[in-house]
Amino acid sequence: MEMKRLAPRKPLAASGFKNFTLSYLGSPRPSYSLNSATQKKIADKFIKRHKDLAFNEYLKLLDNLYTGKSFDERTFGKHLLLRYPKLRVQIEPKKLDQWLSNLAGWCEIDSLCQNIFKFEEINKNWAAWRKLLLKFNGDSNVSKRRASLVLLVGPSRTSSNERVTKLAFKNIEALRHEKDILITKAISWLLRDLIKNHKTEVVKYLKKNEETLPKIAVREVKTKLLTGKKTIRTIKTHH
Fold first, then answer.
1. How far, in Å, are 85, 106, 121, 197 from residue 191 at the CA level?
2. Span 48-61, pLDDT tens digits
3. Domains, the chain
4. Of 24, 62, 99, 106, which is least surrounded by CB within 10 A?
5. 121, 89 in Cβ contact below 8 A?
6. Quick check: pTM over 0.85?
Protein backbone atom coordinates (compact mmCIF):
# COMPACT_ATOMS: atom_id res chain seq x y z
CA MET A 1 0.00 0.00 0.00
CA GLU A 2 1.45 3.33 -1.11
CA MET A 3 0.38 5.26 1.99
CA LYS A 4 2.03 2.79 4.33
CA ARG A 5 5.19 2.71 2.21
CA LEU A 6 5.55 6.50 2.29
CA ALA A 7 4.76 6.88 5.99
CA PRO A 8 7.56 8.53 8.03
CA ARG A 9 9.99 6.05 9.54
CA LYS A 10 9.76 7.90 12.83
CA PRO A 11 6.10 8.82 13.26
CA LEU A 12 5.09 11.60 15.59
CA ALA A 13 3.58 9.12 18.03
CA ALA A 14 6.89 8.89 19.90
CA SER A 15 6.32 12.29 21.47
CA GLY A 16 2.59 11.85 21.86
CA PHE A 17 2.06 14.61 19.31
CA LYS A 18 0.46 12.29 16.77
CA ASN A 19 -2.21 11.22 19.25
CA PHE A 20 -2.81 14.84 20.19
CA THR A 21 -3.19 15.76 16.52
CA LEU A 22 -5.73 13.01 15.85
CA SER A 23 -7.63 14.04 18.95
CA TYR A 24 -7.73 17.64 17.70
CA LEU A 25 -8.91 16.46 14.28
CA GLY A 26 -11.56 14.33 15.96
CA SER A 27 -10.55 11.10 14.26
CA PRO A 28 -10.75 7.80 16.18
CA ARG A 29 -8.54 6.05 13.62
CA PRO A 30 -4.79 5.39 13.36
CA SER A 31 -2.77 7.54 10.97
CA TYR A 32 0.30 7.11 8.78
CA SER A 33 1.22 10.74 9.53
CA LEU A 34 1.25 11.66 5.85
CA ASN A 35 1.53 15.37 5.15
CA SER A 36 -0.33 17.18 2.35
CA ALA A 37 2.64 17.06 -0.02
CA THR A 38 2.92 13.28 0.32
CA GLN A 39 -0.82 12.77 -0.23
CA LYS A 40 -0.60 14.95 -3.32
CA LYS A 41 2.35 12.90 -4.58
CA ILE A 42 0.34 9.70 -4.21
CA ALA A 43 -2.63 11.26 -6.00
CA ASP A 44 -0.48 12.57 -8.86
CA LYS A 45 1.07 9.14 -9.37
CA PHE A 46 -2.30 7.40 -9.35
CA ILE A 47 -3.93 9.83 -11.77
CA LYS A 48 -1.00 9.63 -14.17
CA ARG A 49 -1.48 5.86 -14.33
CA HIS A 50 -5.28 5.96 -14.50
CA LYS A 51 -6.24 8.80 -16.82
CA ASP A 52 -9.14 6.82 -18.27
CA LEU A 53 -10.61 5.48 -15.04
CA ALA A 54 -14.11 4.05 -15.53
CA PHE A 55 -16.90 5.46 -13.36
CA ASN A 56 -17.70 2.14 -11.65
CA GLU A 57 -14.01 1.69 -10.77
CA TYR A 58 -13.86 5.29 -9.52
CA LEU A 59 -16.88 4.77 -7.28
CA LYS A 60 -15.54 1.48 -5.93
CA LEU A 61 -12.23 3.12 -5.09
CA LEU A 62 -13.96 5.94 -3.20
CA ASP A 63 -16.11 3.41 -1.33
CA ASN A 64 -12.95 1.61 -0.24
CA LEU A 65 -11.26 4.82 0.86
CA TYR A 66 -14.23 5.98 2.91
CA THR A 67 -14.25 2.67 4.79
CA GLY A 68 -10.46 2.50 5.12
CA LYS A 69 -8.75 1.60 8.37
CA SER A 70 -6.72 4.81 8.61
CA PHE A 71 -7.39 8.52 8.91
CA ASP A 72 -5.25 9.05 5.81
CA GLU A 73 -7.46 6.81 3.65
CA ARG A 74 -10.67 8.48 4.80
CA THR A 75 -9.35 11.94 3.96
CA PHE A 76 -7.69 10.98 0.67
CA GLY A 77 -10.91 10.82 -1.33
CA LYS A 78 -10.88 14.61 -1.78
CA HIS A 79 -7.93 14.30 -4.17
CA LEU A 80 -9.84 11.94 -6.43
CA LEU A 81 -13.02 14.00 -6.21
CA LEU A 82 -11.18 17.16 -7.23
CA ARG A 83 -8.95 15.60 -9.91
CA TYR A 84 -11.69 13.70 -11.75
CA PRO A 85 -14.38 16.38 -12.27
CA LYS A 86 -16.07 14.53 -15.14
CA LEU A 87 -16.53 11.49 -12.93
CA ARG A 88 -17.40 13.50 -9.83
CA VAL A 89 -20.43 15.12 -11.49
CA GLN A 90 -21.85 11.65 -12.12
CA ILE A 91 -22.01 10.87 -8.40
CA GLU A 92 -25.55 10.80 -7.04
CA PRO A 93 -25.87 13.14 -4.02
CA LYS A 94 -27.30 10.33 -1.89
CA LYS A 95 -23.88 8.63 -2.10
CA LEU A 96 -22.61 11.19 0.40
CA ASP A 97 -25.08 9.82 2.94
CA GLN A 98 -23.26 6.49 2.83
CA TRP A 99 -19.77 8.00 2.96
CA LEU A 100 -20.52 10.39 5.82
CA SER A 101 -21.76 7.48 7.92
CA ASN A 102 -18.13 6.36 7.99
CA LEU A 103 -16.53 9.71 8.86
CA ALA A 104 -15.89 11.30 12.25
CA GLY A 105 -14.29 14.57 13.31
CA TRP A 106 -14.21 17.87 11.47
CA CYS A 107 -11.23 17.02 9.26
CA GLU A 108 -12.70 13.81 7.85
CA ILE A 109 -16.08 15.47 7.30
CA ASP A 110 -14.67 18.60 5.70
CA SER A 111 -12.33 16.65 3.42
CA LEU A 112 -15.48 15.37 1.71
CA CYS A 113 -17.63 18.49 2.00
CA GLN A 114 -15.41 21.58 1.80
CA ASN A 115 -15.28 23.16 -1.68
CA ILE A 116 -15.52 19.81 -3.45
CA PHE A 117 -18.98 19.97 -5.01
CA LYS A 118 -19.34 23.22 -6.93
CA PHE A 119 -22.42 25.42 -7.15
CA GLU A 120 -22.92 24.57 -10.83
CA GLU A 121 -23.03 20.84 -10.05
CA ILE A 122 -25.41 21.27 -7.12
CA ASN A 123 -27.63 23.64 -9.06
CA LYS A 124 -28.04 21.21 -11.98
CA ASN A 125 -29.44 18.59 -9.60
CA TRP A 126 -30.94 20.98 -7.09
CA ALA A 127 -33.96 18.92 -6.03
CA ALA A 128 -31.79 15.94 -5.04
CA TRP A 129 -29.19 18.09 -3.28
CA ARG A 130 -31.81 20.11 -1.39
CA LYS A 131 -33.53 16.93 -0.23
CA LEU A 132 -30.21 15.50 0.94
CA LEU A 133 -29.08 18.64 2.78
CA LEU A 134 -32.39 18.95 4.60
CA LYS A 135 -32.16 15.28 5.55
CA PHE A 136 -28.62 15.80 6.87
CA ASN A 137 -29.78 18.82 8.86
CA GLY A 138 -32.13 16.69 10.95
CA ASP A 139 -29.95 13.58 11.17
CA SER A 140 -28.95 12.10 14.52
CA ASN A 141 -25.37 11.80 13.23
CA VAL A 142 -23.49 15.02 14.00
CA SER A 143 -21.21 14.41 11.01
CA LYS A 144 -24.19 14.77 8.69
CA ARG A 145 -25.56 17.80 10.52
CA ARG A 146 -22.19 19.51 10.08
CA ALA A 147 -22.19 18.44 6.41
CA SER A 148 -25.55 20.18 5.90
CA LEU A 149 -23.71 23.44 6.63
CA VAL A 150 -20.22 22.86 5.21
CA LEU A 151 -21.51 21.64 1.83
CA LEU A 152 -23.13 25.07 1.41
CA VAL A 153 -20.06 27.11 2.34
CA GLY A 154 -18.46 27.11 -1.11
CA PRO A 155 -21.70 27.64 -3.08
CA SER A 156 -22.70 30.48 -0.75
CA ARG A 157 -19.38 32.22 -1.32
CA THR A 158 -19.18 31.71 -5.07
CA SER A 159 -22.83 32.28 -5.99
CA SER A 160 -25.52 34.80 -5.14
CA ASN A 161 -28.25 32.33 -6.11
CA GLU A 162 -31.24 32.84 -3.84
CA ARG A 163 -32.10 29.15 -3.49
CA VAL A 164 -28.67 28.47 -1.97
CA THR A 165 -28.98 31.40 0.39
CA LYS A 166 -32.43 30.39 1.59
CA LEU A 167 -31.30 26.84 2.27
CA ALA A 168 -28.18 28.06 4.09
CA PHE A 169 -30.20 30.23 6.47
CA LYS A 170 -32.79 27.47 6.90
CA ASN A 171 -30.14 24.96 7.97
CA ILE A 172 -28.45 27.48 10.26
CA GLU A 173 -31.80 28.30 11.85
CA ALA A 174 -32.48 24.62 12.57
CA LEU A 175 -29.10 24.10 14.25
CA ARG A 176 -28.38 27.43 15.97
CA HIS A 177 -29.29 26.10 19.44
CA GLU A 178 -26.77 23.26 19.32
CA LYS A 179 -23.68 23.31 21.54
CA ASP A 180 -21.46 20.77 19.78
CA ILE A 181 -18.36 22.56 18.45
CA LEU A 182 -18.71 20.69 15.15
CA ILE A 183 -21.94 22.63 14.65
CA THR A 184 -21.16 25.97 16.28
CA LYS A 185 -17.97 26.42 14.25
CA ALA A 186 -19.72 25.39 11.03
CA ILE A 187 -22.50 27.94 11.63
CA SER A 188 -19.87 30.64 12.07
CA TRP A 189 -18.09 29.52 8.92
CA LEU A 190 -21.22 29.51 6.76
CA LEU A 191 -22.43 32.89 8.02
CA ARG A 192 -19.01 34.42 7.38
CA ASP A 193 -18.93 33.13 3.82
CA LEU A 194 -22.47 34.37 3.19
CA ILE A 195 -21.20 37.90 3.83
CA LYS A 196 -19.57 38.12 0.40
CA ASN A 197 -22.84 38.03 -1.54
CA HIS A 198 -25.44 38.58 1.17
CA LYS A 199 -24.00 40.99 3.71
CA THR A 200 -27.31 42.75 4.39
CA GLU A 201 -29.11 39.47 5.08
CA VAL A 202 -26.33 38.33 7.44
CA VAL A 203 -26.43 41.60 9.37
CA LYS A 204 -30.20 41.33 9.77
CA TYR A 205 -30.05 37.69 10.80
CA LEU A 206 -27.29 38.35 13.33
CA LYS A 207 -29.18 41.27 14.86
CA LYS A 208 -32.39 39.24 15.15
CA ASN A 209 -30.79 36.07 16.57
CA GLU A 210 -27.73 37.31 18.45
CA GLU A 211 -28.97 35.99 21.79
CA THR A 212 -29.55 32.44 20.54
CA LEU A 213 -26.77 31.94 18.03
CA PRO A 214 -23.56 30.26 19.24
CA LYS A 215 -21.35 32.85 20.90
CA ILE A 216 -18.37 31.91 18.75
CA ALA A 217 -20.45 32.52 15.63
CA VAL A 218 -21.61 35.93 16.85
CA ARG A 219 -18.06 36.94 17.74
CA GLU A 220 -16.44 35.74 14.51
CA VAL A 221 -19.18 37.06 12.22
CA LYS A 222 -19.07 40.49 13.88
CA THR A 223 -15.31 40.58 13.48
CA LYS A 224 -15.58 39.55 9.82
CA LEU A 225 -18.15 42.27 9.18
CA LEU A 226 -15.94 44.84 10.88
CA THR A 227 -12.48 43.86 9.62
CA GLY A 228 -12.98 41.40 6.78
CA LYS A 229 -11.22 38.73 8.86
CA LYS A 230 -12.40 36.01 11.24
CA THR A 231 -10.30 37.17 14.18
CA ILE A 232 -8.30 40.20 15.15
CA ARG A 233 -4.68 39.35 15.82
CA THR A 234 -2.89 41.33 18.43
CA ILE A 235 0.50 42.51 17.25
CA LYS A 236 3.05 42.38 20.06
CA THR A 237 5.74 45.02 20.15
CA HIS A 238 9.00 44.77 22.00
CA HIS A 239 10.60 47.75 23.66
1. 27, 17, 22, 11
2. 999 999 999 999 99
3. 41-91 (no CATH), 105-239 (1.25.10.90)
4. 24
5. yes
6. yes
